[in-house]
Amino acid sequence: MVDPDFIYTSDQLKQIAEDTLRYARQKGVSGAAVGVSEGNGLSVSVRKGEIETIEKNRDKGIGVTVFIGKKRGNATTSDFSPQSLKQTVDAAYNIASFTSEDAAAGLPDADMLERHPMELSLYYRWPIGTEEAVELARRTEAAAFDTDKRIANSEGASVNVQHSHFILANSEGFAGGYPASSHSFSVAPIAMSGGNMQRDYWYTASRDPDRLKSPEEVGARAARRALARLDARQIGTRKCPVLFEAPVAIGLLNAFVYAVSGGALYRKSSFLVDSLGRQVFPEHIGLLEDAHVKGAMGSAPFDDEGVRTGRRQIVENGRVCGYFLSTYSARKLGMQTTGNAGGSHNLVLSSSLTDAGDDFDAMLKKMGTGLVVTELMGQGINYVTGDYSRGASGFWVENGVIRYPVQEITVAGNLKDMFAHIVAVGADTLIRGAKQSGSILVEEMTVAGV
After folding, report:
1. Long-range CB contacts (< 8 A, 24+ apart) of 252-258?
2. pLDDT in tens, 129-168
């Protein structure tokens, strides 16, 4: 047993998966896949030192996919009893019976499956009790309040602990699974000065609780960010360089990933259709995917279909040399799966022009005069055309020095142009989930204000 809080062992989950596949074979399906999972977690939040919420979760579930030739059906249940397993297989079979054939439907090719998955150290148990979690949240919030007397309020602090394990199996003989963990805590302080009020936040997340930042560091950083936004003003409409701070720069990376993912590509709902081999970024830009970084949030020995993962260059010298494809989307495009059913793995954006000393202050100097964006609002991205327009706040910079905070502005452009005109990537790298980037400097965008 991996975790004393789990009800089922990995062997028991595997047996449930095997039983479910046996029921599917008895129905005469041409292929089947089963995912069996169990998880438990704790989440607490406090505000101004008082407990707001305490939540404990314990979840389990089975997902069954069956194929009748090129017809596909899927059903789920949270009941692990033999009768329920049979009913779930029956439900998936009935759905498949009434669906249309799809030439791209089916299990991954057998030679793409990961038969010998490596151990990637993705599970770290955090045996923290409710009282300890509440105290940790209180310490984080208290650190924000202690930073400055102008931190007079808070939207609260939270602590989240999650443990899970699963088995994935299919009728091609694949069976694999592993335990995983995800832990975090955060705080959102409010700074007040006169009639002005500004909010910001910070958090830390890791699979390993020992790698989390201290409550004092998280609280103080969140407080400093909120304080820096006090007395924000609007600016007039103009065109200028824009520096995306690392946390929002990762959002640009998200946009690229979506645009070169299989679903958007085969539906032709992306501005980067047929971009493989094309120059999308300047020559100094690279993007690496590495699914096998031990202990990382975006690591996995195989994807959600059991297909092996690995390390590959997605962008090299500014050219796109890889998409993010599942088995289905790859077949729709006449290509081969890239092991990305379920998403990307540990992406690192880099620039050959980045020096070790290119911290945030150095990036301000590179920009000279322009806008730093620290927060984006709204969903103003048209992925078909690449048009980009988001509400924003941040700081106005002159001669490499922050002059004042700004708010109630909009930054606008087109993602094709923005990607093509990335001037620099900072060494101030930040990891958010499965993606890592420093701040990103774009040569010019439209900033709409008063």
Report:
1. 252/415, 252/418, 252/419, 252/437, 252/440, 253/287, 253/347, 253/349, 253/435, 253/437, 254/435, 255/381, 255/383, 255/388, 255/415, 256/280, 256/287, 256/415, 256/419, 257/324, 257/344, 257/347, 257/435, 258/383
2. 999 999 999 999 999 999 999 999 999 999 999 999 999 9
